[in-house]
C-alpha cells in the first residue's frame, strides 16, 4: 500500500498508486509520489515512467477525511503541487495509464503527463466546487478545450475516456484488462529510442509549453486557501463526508 515502483522492462519504471479503497491520497502520499517520480527520472538508466494505480480507480484526489480531521489543507496543497510538478518536470516522458475514476488530484497528475492511455471504464472530472475547493483547472485545460473545461469545472461533471480520445488528449482507449499491457508497449517504443534524444525532447516540449503550469496551479490554490479561511471549504467537506 502507498507508492511503489518497479521495473516494467529495460528502461521502464512503473510507479503505482495504492491507497485503498479509492486512492484518495494522503498528504504524505503526494510527497512520496513526487519523490518516486523524480528519483526515477534522475536515474540515468530510466527512459520512461509509467504511472498507474491499483484498485477500483486511478485516483479520487486528496484524502478529505485527513484534511477535515487534521486541518491538513496546507500539506495537501503543497503536496499536490509537488506531485503534479514532479510528473511535469520528470526528466523522461511519463505515460499515465488510467482506469476507473480519475478525479481531483488525479486530473493534476494526468494533465501533466506526456501521454495518457485509458481503459474504457475511465472517467475524468473535477468535483472541487462541490467540495469547497478550487484547483487543477490548469491541468483539465490541458485535456479538453477551454469552454468544455469551464463547463466541467463549474458543474463538477465528468467525461469519459472516449470523449477525451475524441479531443486527442487520451492517446489510446483499451479494455481495462489490456491497459497495463498497452501502457508498457507504448513505453517500450519510447524506451527503445536514444535516451539522450528522449530526455532532450522532454525538456524541449516543456520549454515551448504556452502555459506555466506551476505558477497557474499555485494561483488557483490561493483561492482554495481563501475558501478555507471563510469556512466555506470546511462546510462543503463536512457535508460530503456526511453523505458518504
UniProtKB/TrEMBL annotation:
Q: SUPFAM superfamilies, alphabetically?
A: ClpP/crotonase
**Which GO-annotated molecular functions does the record name?**
delta(3,5)-delta(2,4)-dienoyl-CoA isomerase activity
**Pfam family name, one:** ECH_1
Endpoints of the signal sequence: none
Query: What family is reported?
Result: Belongs to the enoyl-CoA hydratase/isomerase family.
Q: What is this protein's name?
A: Enoyl-CoA hydratase
**From which organism does this entry originate?**
Actinophytocola xinjiangensis
Q: What is the lineage of its organism?
A: Bacteria, Bacillati, Actinomycetota, Actinomycetes, Pseudonocardiales
Amino acid at each position: 500500500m502507498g507508492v511503489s515502483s518497479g521495473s516494467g522492462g529495460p528502461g521502464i519504471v512503473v510507479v503505482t498508486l495504492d491507497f485503498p479503497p479509492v486512492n484518495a491520497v494522503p498528504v504524505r502520499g503526494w510527497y512520496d509520489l513526487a519523490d518516486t517520480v523524480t528519483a526515477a527520472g534522475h536515474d540515468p538508466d530510466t527512459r520512461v515512467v509509467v504511472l498507474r494505480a491499483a484498485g477500483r480507480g486511478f485516483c479520487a484526489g486528496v484524502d478529505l477525511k485527513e484534511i477535515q480531521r487534521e486541518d491538513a489543507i496546507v500539506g495537501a496543497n503543497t503536496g499536490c503541487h509537488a506531485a503534479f510538478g514532479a510528473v511535469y518536470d520528470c526528466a523522461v516522458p511519463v505515460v499515465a495509464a488510467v482506469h476507473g475514476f480519475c478525479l481531483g488530484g488525479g486530473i493534476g497528475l494526468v494533465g501533466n503527463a506526456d501521454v495518457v492511455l485509458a481503459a474504457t471504464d475511465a472517467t475524468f472530472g473535477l468535483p472541487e466546487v462541490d467540495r469547497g475547493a478550487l484547483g487543477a483547472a490548469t491541468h483539465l485545460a490541458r485535456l479538453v478545450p477551454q469552454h468544455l473545461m469551464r463547463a466541467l469545472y463549474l458543474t463538477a461533471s465528468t467525461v469519459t475516456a472516449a470523449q477525451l480520445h475524441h479531443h486527442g488528449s487520451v492517446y489510446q482507449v483499451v479494455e481495462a484488462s489490456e491497459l497495463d499491457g498497452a501502457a508498457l508497449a507504448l513505453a517500450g517504443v519510447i524506451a527503445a529510442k536514444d535516451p539522450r534524444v528522449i530526455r532532450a525532447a522532454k525538456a524541449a516540449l516543456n520549454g515551448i509549453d504556452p502555459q506555466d503550469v506551476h505558477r497557474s496551479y499555485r494561483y488557483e490554490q490561493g483561492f482554495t486557501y481563501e475558501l478555507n479561511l471563510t469556512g466555506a471549504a470546511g462546510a462543503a467537506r463536512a457535508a460530503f463526508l456526511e453523505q458518504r
